[in-house]
Design a protein that fits this description.
- InterPro entries: Knr4/Smi1-like_dom, Knr4/Smi1-like_sf.
- This is Knr4/Smi1-like domain-containing protein.
- It holds the Pfam family SMI1_KNR4.
- Helices cover 39% and strands 19% of the residues.
- It is α+β, with helices and mostly antiparallel strands.
- The protein has one domain: 3-Layer(aba) Sandwich (SMI1/KNR4-like).
- The strands form two sheets. Strands 1-2-3-4-5 form a five-stranded antiparallel β-sheet. Strands 7-6-8 form a three-stranded antiparallel β-sheet.
- The chain is globular and about 40 Å long.
């Protein structure tokens, strides 16, 4: 069920990007193979939840390019390799209380910074935010709810929170923009 929900929400997002934000759409990488996801699971040392496997199967991340930070809060979907690298980094720097092995980075807030972002707790399924000061809080009950909320906000901007979807030179951005979406 989770796979179907993630796939449905992501297809809504992707359709919107294709039609309205071609620069952001062009940043999407191809989907990962089952073998690539299995290798990632081995390197992370944790079972990757079905929701994230489904998302990675659709797109293994985005290319680092203009318009790639198109998720809510102008977040950038990390590549699988980036997620593994950041997970490894935090595990080396912090003990289990500050970075649990079950926390899988999913996106960074901003295109070129790893100081804050969202991770999926593989133990609970919740999506949490983190920052460079080790502050964390639950943002979404699941990856599915995060993607469904974004898809809803794109299709009906009045459903969005304080930051609304907008277009800036063909890229999706959240907050004030030069062209209303």
């Amino acid at each position: 069920m989770a796979v179907r929900q993630v796939t449905g929400a992501w297809q809504r997002i992707e359709t919107w990007l294709r039609e309205h934000a071609p620069v952001s759409f062009a940043s999407l990488q191809a989907g990962a193979s089952r073998e690539e996801i299995d290798r990632a699971e081995g390197e992370l040392g944790v079972r990757v939840p079905a929701e994230l496997k489904a998302l990675w199967g659709l797109h293994r991340g985005v290319h680092s390019s203009v318009g790639a930070a198109f998720l809510q809060d102008n977040a950038k979907l990390m590549t699988i390799a980036e997620a593994i690298e950041l997970h490894r980094h935090w595990r080396e720097v912090y003990d289990d209380h500050l970075w649990d092995r079950r926390w899988i980075p999913v996106c960074t807030l901003g295109e070129h910074s790893w100081s804050s972002g969202l991770y999926l707790d593989a133990g609970t399924g919740e999506v949490w935010s983190w920052d460079e000061f080790a502050n964390r809080q639950v943002e979404f009950e699941s990856l599915t709810s995060y993607l469904e909320e974004m898809a809803d906000a794109l299709e009906v901007p009045s459903l969005a929170g304080p930051d609304k979807p907008s277009l800036v030179d063909g890229a999706l951005a959240w907050g004030p923009g030069s062209e209303p979406a």
